[in-house]
Design a protein that fits this description.
The complex is a heterodimer of chains A (about 110) and B (about 900). Chain A has about 110 residues and is an alpha+beta fold. Chain A has four helices and three strands; from the N terminus they run H-E-H-H-E-E-H. Chain A has a three-stranded antiparallel β-sheet. Chain B is built from 28 helices and 21 strands. In chain B, a hairpin with a 2-residue loop joins strand 6 and strand 7. In chain B, helix 18 packs antiparallel against helix 24. Chain B is elongated, with a radius of gyration of 38 Å. Classes of the chains: A alpha+beta (about 110), B alpha+beta (about 900). At the A-B interface, helix 2, helix 3 and strand 3 of A face helix 1, helix 2 and helix 4 of B.
Chain lengths: ~110, ~900
């Protein structure tokens, strides 16, 4: 299934970034984009630039923090890391997703049982 | 768990930080982006893609960089303010790039907006502005309705007994007061000067809610019969003549020789309740007794002098007010019936009723009536000028947008939404109109100051004073006009230019663009409408000019040039009544003897002076005119009058020294009186009577002379029935008389000698000087105002239209250069090119003229009342206007047309 680029909700991208940072630790924008590409197995084809818009939004809410550092090929890059507030937010969002997918799953199984 | 409000606050705080650190954030992000792009490109290279392709692929995968930057900026900071500022900065840069066009646009706007604001601020102070007192909307002026003339406007002057009766018996006003403005000779220490005084009743200041700036104000206890009196100064007078010193309170001033103590000063910004007269000093009404002596106006039942205003009690509706006053009227009027009137008039007096009109904007006896209509006309005129100015700027912007269409196309290609582009163009327009409005306010201040100086003249009995400080109403009007102008001339070009077709714009060929043709047509519409509006203005100013010329050049029955008028007041000089005639005679003799005086005379009234005396003539012939039809103007003159004024004597004789107070009663009448009362016969030798009070004798008066008609009260009157009597036979009130001196040189050169001559008789006689020419001129104030201003604005509009036409035509020629070049290269003669251009001009001119003529014919009917001696749809004026406009249009078209003819085909064909 090919999802259209514009259908990636901004909220889900935020969530994916938070999860990525939580799982892999501090990462720069390029790295985040590669990880998302990998994880979604090329199903989600978004413009990579939108990652930066999400990163700004997450920064404004205080869920991630940014710091200039040196990347693996010795170049200057901005590294993002998840904050304690961000951890909490991730947990909350994850729980929401679980709940929703659970409900939808049950509804779908209902139909099948009919 | 985060609450939504907290999240928003957090985001808001971040936005503020973002706004403050704008530059640094942008730079950092650029670095990040570049880094990302580079790494993406390297990945592609590692996968085997050639370098150049890799870079392009990386950019494609990344997405639209510019859009991303814009989105970031949206998030990072307040969208509207920062974008607005950027638009403003950009707008300023663009405007600076074309200084001449910008200057022309700003100047046109400034003149249009300035003119509108000047006229509006005048309308505001004359008609609309409320008095600076407490709750002015509750104030009403009391007026008297005459039952015998129910269609006349109720008059607003009371006698003192009537006022006191109303004051003591009314129950509809929470406060009611009376006042009268009158000039005084104010002396303080040695110097004497003319000052504007005011008699006020005790409750004047309290009812209005005016507060003292120093000392205290008059109260009811200050206004009792037999009072010594006290004076309250106006704030302006206190500042000007006492320097705002506290010591002024308690000191004495003298008004017309009577001493009063200054007890206080009224609040700043309060100038009285007459909008056209300020006051310098106010004294209580009870002091009038000191000025009048024996028969004071305080008890006089036919001396009408007071204006009355009341503050309606809260909760009383206008209907209730009217009803209650109707009920009160009979008892009020019956109590103060003048005893010496005949029974019929007394009965009418008893049946008079009280009426009210809103008085929140103050009372005006002169300016509103005279200038209300002209000001409205002028408002329409300057509105048209503004429209023409806007049209100019619309075509300027249209031409400029054509030059910028490439830039706009590029921006569109980069993804700028159409609304963003339109907003930026509109911001430019609003910027232009705001600068224009600011400049316009300056023009407006000068303009209204000039206007007011124009309006105040010497022979208005009281000098006109208008408070012209710009208040919020004027400012919001200007702002409104500015914004509307900005939107008006911004919208059309903005919408058009952003509809640019990207492909053709990029290719750079203009002619193929359908948009281009539309632009040309819009430009033509704009110029045609300018032509139409200019024609209307030209017709209007032509009509007013011709009216004025007719008034100024018509035969008024006397020669107004080189006559000095001197008005001498022997009452204020405290000369005894029985000595006055001899003194006047003495002065007349001395003035006649002055070198430079060709002839001299004196009279009670001078022509066109805003003063009248009329009475009813009775003749013993069948079918003689009676009642109001027999009303005749009177004047009392010395023997040399007609000679001095050069009114020809047609039959009989002048008055001479044998016509004294005790000799037979005689009169000289003019042609109009003769035709009315003694038709078809020689009036000399005939007798008539003047209607007298019942019980008094009406002696027969013999007509001894016949003179030509001369204007009495106004140049517009068409029936100046006037009867002249010897000044020695004047029945009463002759303590102020005027001398007419015909001079061999400029009349004003004689003033000093006249003062010396009068001083030899008595040093304390106050004199007023003017010239007859000036006096006649002043009576034409309204006409002069309309003619001058409409011509000025008409000329302005013409100039603006000419500039607009020149610009539009230049642009047209430039656009069609390629076409002309091709034609000429193919062998067309220069004159055919000229013909092409001229055809366009003629088309625009013709359609504009047609519309203008239609508009003029439809609207000039409204002006008929203001005109004199010609019909509103006068064809000569219309033809002249058409001629002038055509000449101007062709002048404006000349240079661009010549340029078209001189096009070098080689240059033109290479033009991109």
């Amino acid at each position: 299934m090919d999802m259209k680029k514009s259908e990636v909700l901004q909220g889900t991208l935020d969530l994916m970034i938070l999860k990525t940072l939580h799982a892999l630790g501090p990462l720069h924008g390029f790295g985040i984009a590669r990880r998302i590409e990998q994880v979604s197995r090329d199903v989600l084809q978004l413009n990579e630039g939108t990652v930066y818009t999400s990163l700004l939004r997450l920064q404004q809410q205080g869920w991630i923090a940014a710091e200039w550092g040196t990347s693996e090929n010795n170049r200057k890059a901005k590294f993002y890391s998840i904050t304690k507030r961000g951890q909490k937010q991730l947990q909350v969002e994850a729980e929401n997703w679980e709940r929703i997918s659970d409900v939808i799953g049950r509804v779908l199984r209902l139909e099948a049982e009919e | 768990m985060r609450s939504p409000r907290e999240s928003r606050l957090r985001a808001f705080a971040a936005k503020v930080r973002g706004f403050l650190r704008a530059g640094r954030h942008d730079g950092e992000f650029d670095e990040e982006m570049q880094e990302h792009l580079q790494r993406l490109a390297e990945r592609f290279v590692a996968q085997g893609m050639p370098r150049k392709e890799a870079a392009a692929a990386a950019r494609r995968q990344f997405g639209n960089v510019t859009l991303l930057q814009e989105d970031r900026r949206d998030l990072r900071t307040f969208l509207s303010i920062e974008v607005l500022l950027k638009d403003l900065r950009y707008g300023l840069r663009i405007l600076r790039r074309t200084p001449i066009t910008t200057a022309v646009a700003i100047l046109s706007l400034a003149l249009g907006i300035g003119a509108n604001t000047a006229i509006f601020s005048l309308i505001d102070s004359v008609m609309l502005r409320m008095l600076p007192v407490q709750k002015p909307e509750e104030l009403v002026q009391a007026r008297i309705q005459n039952p015998e003339s129910p269609n006349d406007e109720p008059f607003g002057v009371f006698t003192n007994p009537l006022w006191e009766e109303l004051r003591d018996h009314q129950d509809v006003f929470s406060g009611v007061f009376a006042w009268d403005s009158t000039p005084f000779d104010l002396a303080q220490g040695g110097a004497v000067q003319r000052a504007d005084g005011m008699f006020v009743s005790g409750d004047y200041f309290r009812t209005l809610g005016v507060r003292p700036a120093a000392g205290r104000l008059l109260t009811a206890s200050d206004d009792r019969r037999g009072c010594a009196g006290a004076a309250v100064l106006s704030y302006g007078f206190w500042q000007e003549h006492f320097g705002g010193a506290q010591s002024a309170i308690g000191s004495m001033i003298s008004l017309d020789g009577h001493q009063f103590q200054i007890i206080g000063v009224s609040q700043p910004g309060f100038y009285g309740t007459h909008i056209e007269i300020k006051f310098d000093a106010a004294i209580p009404i009870c002091t009038a007794a000191q000025f009048d002596g024996a028969r004071s106006r305080l008890d006089h039942r036919s001396w009408w002098w007071l204006s009355v205003i009341g503050r309606t009690k809260p909760g009383i509706t206008p209907a209730q007010l009217k009803a209650r006053l109707q009920v009160l009227s009979p008892s009020v009027f019956s109590a103060v019936v003048p005893p010496n009137w005949d029974p019929k008039h007394q009965e009418n007096f008893r049946r008079r009723t009280l009426a009210t009109v809103p008085a929140g904007t103050g009372v005006s006896y002169l300016v509103r009536r005279e200038f209300g209509q002209p000001l409205n006309i002028l408002m329409a005129v300057v509105g048209l000028v503004l429209l023409i100015a806007c049209a100019n700027i619309a075509s300027l912007m249209l031409a400029r947008s054509a030059a910028r269409h490439k830039e706009i196309a590029v921006r569109k290609a980069l993804g700028a939404p159409r609304t963003r582009l339109i907003r930026q163009l509109l911001t430019e327009c609003v910027l232009l109109s705001t600068i224009g409005a600011a400049l316009g306010i300056l023009f407006a201040r000068w303009g209204s100051a000039l206007l007011v100086r124009f309006i105040s003249t010497k022979s208005n009995p009281l000098p006109v004073f208008l408070d012209l400080s710009l208040d919020w109403r004027v400012l919001s009007f200007t702002a409104g006009v500015a914004v509307c102008t900005g939107l008006l001339f911004g919208v059309l070009p903005a919408f058009r230019s952003t509809r640019v077709s990207l492909v053709s714009a990029m290719k750079g060929s203009h002619a193929a663009d359908a948009e281009h043709g539309l632009r040309l047509r819009s430009g033509k519409w704009i110029v045609a409408s300018q032509v139409a509006l200019s024609l209307v203005l030209l017709v209007v100013s032509g009509l007013f000019l011709r009216s004025l010329v007719k008034l100024v050049t018509m035969d008024i029955g006397f020669d107004r040039n080189n006559v000095l008028l001197v008005r001498a007041d022997l009452h204020t000089a405290k000369v005894a009544a029985e000595q006055q005639p001899a003194m006047f005679d003495d002065i007349e003799g001395r003035l006649r003897a002055l070198p430079g005086v060709v002839s001299a005379s004196r009279s009670l009234l001078t022509p066109v002076s805003n003063r009248m005396w009329n009475d009813i003539l009775q003749v013993d012939t069948p079918n003689a005119p009676t009642g109001d039809d027999a009303l005749v103007n009177f004047n009392f003159i010395s023997p040399g009058y007609f000679e001095t004024l050069r009114t020809p004597l047609l039959a009989g004789r002048h008055f001479n020294d044998s016509d004294t107070k005790t000799s037979a009663k005689v009169a000289i009448i003019n042609e109009a009186v003769a035709r009315k009362f003694f038709p078809n016969s020689n009036p000399v030798g005939k007798l008539f009577r003047v209607q007298a009070e019942p019980g008094k004798a009406a002696p027969p008066i013999e007509v001894v002379g016949l003179v030509k008609n001369a204007k009495y009260d106004s140049l517009r009157e068409d029936n100046s029935v006037t009867a002249y009597f010897p000044i020695t036979q004047v029945p009463e009130h002759a303590e102020v008389q005027s001398f007419e001196l015909r001079t061999a040189m400029r009349p004003s050169a004689l003033i000093a000698q006249v003062q010396d001559a009068v001083a030899q008789v008595s040093k304390v006689i106050p004199l007023e000087f003017t010239t007859l020419a000036q006096q006649v001129n002043d009576s034409l104030m309204q006409e002069r105002l309309l003619a001058t201003l409409s011509t000025f604005f008409g000329g302005l509009a013409l100039l603006l239209a000419m500039i607009g036409l020149y610009g539009a035509l230049s642009y047209l020629v430039t656009q069609r250069q390629v076409e002309f070049g091709i034609r000429m290269a193919l062998g067309a003669p220069q004159t055919s090119i000229l013909g092409l251009v001229m055809r366009d001009v003629a088309l625009v001119l013709a359609s504009g003229m047609a519309a203008g003529i239609g508009l003029s014919l439809a609207t000039v009917g409204l002006l008929q009342k203001m005109l004199f001696g010609l019909a509103a749809r006068d064809s000569v004026t219309m033809l002249a206007a058409i001629g002038v406009l055509s000449a101007v249009v062709f002048c404006a078209a000349y240079l661009p047309a010549r340029r078209a003819m001189r096009i070098d085909p080689m240059v033109a064909l290479r033009y991109e």
